[in-house]
Amino acid sequence: MATDDQPRPVLDPIDRLSEIVFGLLMALSFTGTMSVAVGGGEKVMAVLGAAFGCNLAWGIVDGVMHVLTTAVERVKRRGLIETLRREPLPRAREVFYENLPDNVRLVASEAEAETLLTRVRALPAHDHQPVVTRRDLRAALAIFALVAISTLPPSIPFLLIERIDLAMRVSNAVALVMLFVIGAQLGRYMGRSPWPMAFAMAAIGGVLVTVTIALGG
């Protein structure tokens, strides 16, 4: 758990693992068809460059969308707080109850909800706080880096193995092992056995590999 001495990471574990999965699946979509797309060393490098470039572009888009969605949610949350502070108490109470999550409504008594509303109405205004923070930008940079770096392990076999078909199979195996490990980590993060999620993630990658091979990859 993060404390004042240990700042909270800019991305939570599931976000970090998800970005790596996206990068791996995109890399698989390129490397899985390598034997069809290339016929020589120069073309191999061209396809690898295209795969890396595609993941770079995806990393940029994903990072920008993270900043955008975070900013939208922040503005929406601040607008809700301002509405609760500005409106008369009966209207504020109605708006507050409408925006309570369903599971909170089930466990919170009317007195507890009223106490929460009173505390929210006492919160200070956020007029001078930025909509986009440095933390958002660091998170976007982390997303970009994760998506870009995830391309590298499946690409290495093509740089070390001359036979394209063998390099492609080794590349696929590397990606599947990575997906298996990431799935296990996601399972642990959910507080469950790591194995079902590990096999599920590997199966997703396996289906993608099977489809590309069936199409001539």
Written description of the protein model:
- The chain has 217 residues and is mainly α.
- The protein has one domain (18-212).
- 78% of the residues lie in helices and 0% in strands.
- The chain has helices at residues 13-31, 34-37, 41-86, 89-99, 102-107, 110-121, 134-149, 152-160, 164-189, 194-214.
- α1 runs antiparallel to α3 (41-86) and α3 (41-86) runs antiparallel to α4.
- The longest helix is centred in the first third of the chain and has 46 residues, at 41-86.
Outline the secondary-structure elements.
Layout: H1 13-31, H2 34-37, H3 41-86, H4 89-99, H5 102-107, H6 110-121, H7 134-149, H8 152-160, H9 164-189, H10 194-214
Helix pairs in contact: 1-3, 1-7, 1-9, 3-4, 3-7, 3-8, 8-9, 9-10
Attribute tags:
single chain; 217 residues; mainly alpha; 10 helices; elongated; disordered N terminus
From the N-terminal CA to the C-terminal CA, the straight-line distance is: 45 Å
Quick one: biggest sheet?
none
Question: How much of the polypeptide forms β-strand, as a percent range?
Answer: under 5%
- Overall geometry comes to elongated
Helical run tally: 10
Class by helix and strand content? mainly alpha
Number of strands: 0
Radius of gyration equals 24 Å
Integer tally of domains: 1
Helical amount:
over 70%
How would you spell out the order of helices and strands?
Answer: HHHHHHHHHH
Let me know the average pLDDT.
Answer: 84
Uncertain parts: 1-5
Please identify the oligomeric state. Answer: single chain
